[in-house]
Amino acid sequence: MEIRKKNIDRGSGFDFGRVSEDYAKYRDIYPPEFYQNIADRGLCISGQTVLDIGTGTGVLPRNMYRYGARFIGADISPEQIDKARELSLKEKMDINFLVSSAEELPFENNRFDVITACQCFFYFDSAKIAPIFHRILKQDGKLVILYMAWFPFEDRIAQRSEEIVLKYSPDWTGAGETEHPILIDENIRRYFTLTDSETYRLKVHFTRDQWHGRMKTCRGIGASLSEDAFERWDKEHYEMLKNEFSEEFDVLHYTSIAVLTAK
CB under 8 Å to 170, separation ≥6 — which residues? Predict the structure, then answer.
């Protein structure tokens, strides 16, 4: 399903369903400490029912399944949900998935202990989702917003990859990240109180093929480029990696977490 947002890529359309196969293969990149940091806060653990919004291929529910929570994952893309179901069944995980936008969730009041949103919160209409999330969370339920990004101004690999993305997708607004906490707007604050937050750095290990695959699933590449433009990007980006960098490397990232409690 194509998505268009005025504040994202200057209104250009994108559809992660176009890259669901590669997304499943290359976007499961969060290191173990990312998930442990969530569980250490008493979130997404045994005894809790968790809704993961913008679940994609179910990366967060599948990786946190071992902590014992009961997960439901929702995403606007049917292709992403199909892949999430396939992967969870293959791994013999009892996770429910449904196709739904965050703004049209079908759940009853007081259903969830936790709602998670990983790498996707900025896609949502905060004025619409805030009352919905508040309604379907239990009393004192938690909204957990998660984000991870590389450093193009500090990491040479990230910098070179961004340069090539922008060559083919100049309207891409995902470039130029710097470290910052997750910003919580007034629509969310009307229903939730920020009770915990953290930003920290970490190195993520990739092979050349894995990093190329990660960039392939970037919103500005696989989710939006024409077939011809994608093929030209694919060749140029891989040649750059092969000529300038080793077979394996670490890419410097930062990750942010914001935990909000329902008022």
Answer: none
**Model confidence pLDDT, tens digit, residues 75-110:** 999 999 999 999 999 999 999 999 999 999 999 999
pLDDT one-digit tens code per residue, 5-64: 999 999 999 999 999 999 999 999 999 999 999 999 999 999 999 999 999 999 999 999
Taking residue 203's Cβ as centre, other Cβ atoms within 10 Å add up to 12
- Distance of CA 261 to CAs 120, 139, 182, 211, Å? 19, 9, 15, 36
The Cα–Cα gap between 179 and 247 comes to: 27
Please check whether residue 175 is in contact with residue 239, taking contact to mean a CB–CB distance below 8 angstroms: no
User: For residue 165, what is the enclosing H or E element?
Assistant: helix 156-168
Other CB atoms within a 10 A radius of the CB of residue 117 amount to 25
Distance CA 204, CA 149 (A): 10
On the question of pLDDT at 1 being above 90, the answer is no
Largest Cα separation within the chain, whole Å, is: 55
- Look at residues 60, 67, 68 and name the one whose alpha carbon lies nearest to residue 119: 60
d(CA 262, CA 243): 51
Concatenate the DSSP letters of all residues of 118-144 into one string. Answer: ES-GGGS-HHHHHHHHHHHEEEEEEEE
